[in-house]
Specification:
The strands form two sheets. A two-stranded antiparallel ribbon has the order 1-2. Strands 3-4 form a two-stranded antiparallel sheet. Helix 3 packs antiparallel against helix 4 (110-140). It is mainly alpha-helical and 303 residues long. It has helices spanning 2-23, 26-40, 48-78, 110-140, 144-147, 155-158, 162-171, 197-212, 220-250, 254-266, 283-300, and strands at residues 87-91, 95-100, 152-154, 192-194.
């Protein structure tokens, strides 16, 4: 019951965060204000238009997370161990912080745990980056009238990822450039960039899946670190990651500050032991982990 309630809260926060980008569009904000004014005057009002607009963004966000969880399930079945049904974790920043999946049986070795841990976020990153690319192509293909109807994200938020921001800038050069008037001022937070809903879902998905790969606690990244560095080494790596997350969070990354708190309170312990923790990882998996680590850094380091 507790897990179901947490998932229900997560779905609610995803829905809320699917509405927000549309409220950053002046047209829809005015429509919402007008309906609220009618409600305040005890007159008939209707806000259903916001639900209709935001559903594609909601569906795309949930679809990315579903891909993440399905990849976990496939990897667990392929390696002969069982997991719990995923519990979606709510986030005040992006609506969703990922899923919590516990192991019901013990993986046979490091390779099995590694395959399980990396499958979800890697699949999520692939789908998210693909949606971001497709959404940006759709964004630049729109006429002026359609473009003005798009939802938006703050420029300051979009610049929190070098990789995702690079994808956006490669398709629409200069879109994320900081105007001279906004340099060194609070005005940067007031600049909103219209984007296709698929692009917004893709951006959010990249950030969430990259955060899930950070080597901390009983997360996907923590499990990967455990297979690479062992229990003693992982404790040191996790400590360094926690410090870096906190510093980056204080410096302006709401995502990392929230994720830091989430892991500290709910997933700080290391994963249960595998039946064989002696044999080392094979080189191909170490290579995959290294490439994935680079992608995580590029995604979470600001422009």
């Amino acid at each position: 019951i507790q897990r179901s309630f947490i998932t229900a809260v997560a779905l609610a926060t995803v829905w809320y965060n699917s509405l927000l980008p549309y409220l950053l569009n002046d047209k829809y904000m005015k429509m919402a204000d007008d309906q609220l004014a009618l409600a305040g005057a005890s007159m008939s009002s209707n806000m259903d238009f916001l639900n209709d607009l935001s559903f594609p963004l909601f569906a795309a966000t949930i679809g990315i997370q579903a891909t993440h969880e399905i990849a976990h399930i496939i990897a667990a079945n392929a390696n002969g161990f069982n997991t719990t049904i995923p519990t979606l974790a709510p986030s005040l920043v992006y609506g969703l912080m990922g899923g919590i999946t516990s192991l019901q049986s013990t993986p046979k070795d490091k390779q099995s745990l590694f395959d399980f841990a990396i499958a979800g976020p890697l699949a999520g990153l692939v789908v998210s980056s693909s949606l971001l690319f497709a959404g940006m192509v759709a964004t630049i293909s729109l006429d002026a009238a359609s473009y003005s109807d798009l939802p938006a994200l703050p420029l300051a938020l979009l610049r929190q990822s070098s990789l995702a921001g690079g994808i956006i800038d490669s398709i629409s050069p200069g879109l994320l450039s900081v105007p001279d008037a906004a340099l060194g001022s609070q005005a940067l937070t007031d600049i909103n960039i219209p984007l296709h809903p698929l692009a917004i879902a893709g951006y959010v998905g990249m950030m969430i899946n990259a955060a899930n790969l950070l080597p901390v606690g009983r997360t996907d990244g923590g499990r990967i670190a455990l297979t690479l560095f062992g229990r003693t080494g992982t404790q040191l790596v996790s400590l360094i990651a926690f410090i870096a997350m906190f510093i980056q969070g204080v410096m302006g990354s709401d995502l990392l500050l929230f994720y830091f708190s989430f892991v500290i309170f709910f997933q700080s312990e290391l994963e249960v032991p595998q039946r064989n923790e002696v044999d080392d990882m094979d080189f191909s998996r170490v290579l995959v982990a290294t490439v994935t680590g680079v992608l995580v850094l590029l995604t979470l380091i600001p422009m």
